[in-house]
Amino acid sequence: MSRTRTRTERRRTVVANRSQTTPVETSEIRALVRAAGDAVVADVTQSGPDDSGTYFGRGTVAELAETVAETDAQRVVVDDELDPGQHHALESAMPDGTTVLDRYRLVLELFEAGAGSRRAKLQVELARLRYELPRLIESADEGLLNEVTEKGSPVYDVRDRIDRLERKLDELPNPADQFRQRRREEGFDLVTIAGYTNAGKSTLLHRLADDMSLADSEPSAGTNVTDEPTDATGPSKDGTAAVGDRLFETLETTTRRATLAGRPVLATDTVGFVDDLPHDLIESFSSTLSEAGAADVVVLVVDASDPESRFRDRLDVSLEVLGTQGVDDDRIVTALNKVDRLSGAERTRRREIAAERLPSAATRPITVSVLEGTNLGTVRDAIVDRLPTERATLRLPNCDEAMALVSRAYDRTHVETVDYDGTDVTLVCRGRPAVVERLRRAAERLQ
Ligand SMILES: Nc1nc2c(ncn2[C@@H]2O[C@H](COP(=O)(O)OP(=O)(O)OP(=O)(O)O)[C@@H](O)[C@H]2O)c(=O)[nH]1
Ligand SMILES: [Mg+2]
């Protein structure tokens, strides 16, 4: 897969971007191209009006073709979504053999390379076909369009494959879902870590998790509930080990066990959001959003070292996207990360910007440096505060069955006190309401 390509084999790629404002930003698209295993050999940018036929103006198209020839590049990646006509016109204007990709197609390629499990592979194929279908219809001539209902026509075949993939995915049990369902019944709270790509989500998960990963304890848990994608042969996916910033390090959701205030928690890392991509693409592949919707608490990680306007936009978009999944602000712990890169004044400024969006004291964002371990205790406390909690006092006869129940309480809740007074045991614990209720009923049965 592309991530394992060695330096010498790297594809040479020119990135191209157009925007109304100057300077034209290419840092993110460069990072995406590098994540796909390519070397960025040049960038060509255009500010100002577009040409709808070729996306760029004529001068830029000529410059792009020249740059490709000079740098001996194999690919051009355009930082936007191209329509089929634009794609064709641009590719035709490039030296022979040059491939033109848009941002959407590049991300699909990244997902294809990262899909480890059978489920993920099917999901990414579905995402690609959904992307291709309208393009196929648009580029089809009339004769072809008349045949869309006929077996054997390209449009019919793609539709048919989409139908079949949707059905297959519906039927395919999701091991991660089943695993989580079981764990929830056993008293685990579910915490999802969400946010833009490169915000520091995986690094945070690593810091919050207990030493043992689920993969170590549950070998049969399924491909999604592991520390690494099953076919990970590339560089370490461990965010803490990464030297520079990388995008889309995490291409499958990963779940680990953590203990917060004595409560067992399952923390799930998710695929990052990225700007200018329909969220359904990422969703169809990674179920990032449904993970967030199903969680008790969502930790939203935002890169506070981004320039002010990007920071503000990303915070807004993240909260909005979570809102569409029914995750209200009071279920979210907002962590403003990478403050080690900021001066005191800049930190204050970021806090002020965030407070405009999240004014209530209960949802106040926390400035953190996951790398340096700053304020992680506050993040843990904030998560625990938001977990559904019930407190119970259980009185048990001092017998063997009662001891088994005490040990179950220790496993599944936070035990505040246990008092033995000869014939009785009194236990005070806090935990998930359903779990506490089950303990209470078990205690009653022992009376
Ligand atoms: N300076 C600084 N860098 C950090 C901090 N936290 C994470 N990073 C770096 O940011 C980069 C991205 O971190 P990840 O944890 O991989 O980010 P992610 O959100 O999981 O990214 P994706 O998986 O791509 O969505 C890595 O190089 C981390 O070392 C921090 O507190 N300060
Ligand atoms: Mg990650």
From TrEMBL:
Belongs to the TRAFAC class OBG-HflX-like GTPase superfamily. HflX GTPase family. GTPase that associates with the 50S ribosomal subunit and may have a role during protein synthesis or ribosome biogenesis. HAMAP family: GTPase_HflX (MF_00900). It comes from Halosolutus amylolyticus. The keyword Cell inner membrane does not apply. Residues 189-391 form the Hflx-type G domain. Keywords: Cytoplasm, GTP-binding, Magnesium, Metal-binding, Nucleotide-binding. It is found in: Cytoplasm. Mg(2+) binds at S202, T250. Residues 1-23, 215-241 are annotated as: Disordered. Its cofactor is Mg(2+). Monomer. Associates with the 50S ribosomal subunit. GTP binds at residues 195-202, 269-272, 337-340, 369-371. GO terms for molecular function: GTP binding; GTPase activity; metal ion binding. Residues 1-10 have a biased composition (Basic residues). This is GTPase HflX. One of its GO terms (cellular component) is cytoplasm.
